[in-house]
Design goal:
Layout: E1 15-23, H1 31-37, E2 45-53, E3 60-65, H2 73-79, H3 82-86, E4 90-95, H4 120-144, E5 149-155, H5 157-168, E6 175-178, H6 194-204, H7 208-217, E7 232-235
Parallel strand pairs: 3-4, 3-5, 5-6, 6-7
Antiparallel strand pairs: 1-2, 2-4
């Protein structure tokens, strides 16, 4: 849905796309999960793409963090949208979160199914891996590509993960979180794909207090943020 009179393509730039990949530095905290992690080699490699204006040197970049079940890097770039940002001299970088897109294991029914599910240990390990991968990408953009300013933009689950990264990393120039998740399993039943997670938790009979304690560990609102709050913006919507 696009409001009347708003042309998303207006002012777009001719884009150059550059794909990159690297081994995820995440090491599972759980020895039991490490055995399961070894069976999904697709998820061990981080895949990303940079969109930059053709024949223009850029020093600013925005790292876009996609939401739950995103299927492709190009769809994430359209969400930004990359063309309009490139026209203003800002490159856009996107990465596939764990178990999403090119990192989706063959056994998964849809992109992201194994990221957040009834498997409690894998779900929280996935959150840790996502933050590790995002911080590694931020450093690569800054230290290897020479970007002088790299910001974070995330929507929905991506807004939550971007905010969690900012809780432990002061290097982003800014954080824009669009309708971010606050606590990862709260109100999960309200999300269409969340029924899989709710059903999995019910089958495992995981005590609600145990889930609550785990969520507290990875709840950005319970941490003193590393990134100064003056460089953060949060957006919410009614519907």
């Amino acid at each position: 849905w696009i409001p009347g009179g708003l042309d998303l393509e207006q002012g777009g730039a001719d884009l150059v796309r550059r794909d990159f990949s690297f081994d995820s530095p995440h090491e599972p905290l759980s020895a039991a999960f490490a055995r399961q992690y070894a069976t999904t080699p697709e998820n061990h490699t981080v895949h990303g793409r940079i969109y930059a204006p053709r024949n223009v040197a850029v020093e600013r970049c925005v790292l876009v963090v996609h939401g739950f079940s995103a299927q492709s890097l190009d769809s994430v770039a359209r969400f930004t949208p990359a063309g309009r940002m490139a026209a203003r001299g800002t490159a856009v970088a996107v990465v596939a979160l764990p178990y999403h897109g090119p990192r989706k294991p063959e056994a998964a029914r849809f992109s992201g199914e194994l990221f957040m599910s009834g498997d409690v240990i894998r779900s929280f390990e996935s959150i840790l891996q996502a933050v590790t991968d995002l911080r590694t990408t931020l450093r690569w953009l800054r230290d290897d590509l020479g970007m002088t300013g790299v910001g974070l933009i995330g929507g929905s689950m991506g807004g939550y993960l971007a905010t969690l990264a900012a809780a432990v990393d002061d290097s982003p120039e800014f954080l824009y979180a669009l309708a971010p998740v606050i606590r990862v399993t709260d109100r999960m039943e309200a999300v269409p794909l969340g029924r899989h997670m709710v059903a999995g938790l019910a089958r495992q009979a995981v005590p609600s207090e145990g889930i609550s304690r785990l969520q507290d560990i990875v709840a950005p609102s319970l941490h003193a943020p590393a990134l100064p709050t003056a460089r953060m913006r949060f957006f919410a919507g009614r519907n």
